[in-house]
Amino acid sequence: MYGEDSLQRFASAHVCVVGVGGVGSWTIEALARSGIGTLTLIDLDNVAESNINRQLPALISLIGKPKVEALAERIADINPECQVNCIEDFVDTENLNQIFSQRFDFVIDAIDQVRVKAAMAAFFIAQQQPFIVSGGAGGQKNAALIQCADLSQVTNDRMLANMRYTLRRQHGFSRQPADKMHIPCIYSRENITPPQTGICHIEQAAPQGLSCAGYGAAMVVTASFGLRCAQACLEHLCRD
Length: 240
Known about the structure:
Layout: H1 4-12, E1 14-18, H2 24-33, E2 38-42, H3 67-78, E3 83-87, H4 96-99, E4 106-109, H5 114-127, E5 131-134, E6 146-150, H6 158-170, E7 184-188, H7 219-239
Parallel strand pairs: 1-2, 1-4, 2-3, 4-5, 5-7
Antiparallel strand pairs: 6-7
Helix pairs in contact: 1-7, 2-7, 5-6
GO biological process, one term: cyclic threonylcarbamoyladenosine biosynthetic process
GO molecular function: tRNA threonylcarbamoyladenosine dehydratase; ubiquitin-like modifier activating enzyme activity
Pfam family, one: ThiF
């Protein structure tokens, strides 16, 4: 379907996924099954019971296991030829240069710390590193409303709006709304549905990863965000 040339590009590609939770884990699954040759997974979280409703590695038998380790074992059973590098750490402004000292063919940002998302985006643009950013996937039910757009054009996403603000105030990006930021984003036009107090368990925000803290999370949406990120990656590799 992609053609022999594209499949060879997939096999020789090195893709990095930052944050392997409700969005990133599904991105990883799609990339592994699409024949990506090398994957680097970055996350410090362990599998928790509260992840079971939406995260691929979240099984009762795996509670307490590092997510990157659980996913690496899964990938080995899906595509033994895929080389997996696990980095059990959180990306922060202090370790950006160290973690991204090597160039990847593509990077997927699937974390929810605005400060770090902004710093990564600014760093990737400066390094001419191809990447895509996932917006917030919590509090949504309709996967059909998921879109891909430049950050300057994103609506209905508080996290990405805060990221845009941070980039304009702290990283020198143009403050003109019409100016493209050259940061591709996956986001949804759906209005957020808040959880019902006393009915929904409110998960506390994790240090990193798209935790959906404060909102309900529908696996059909979080997985769709992840698959759209994978789609963007594959499309880039086909064009490159």
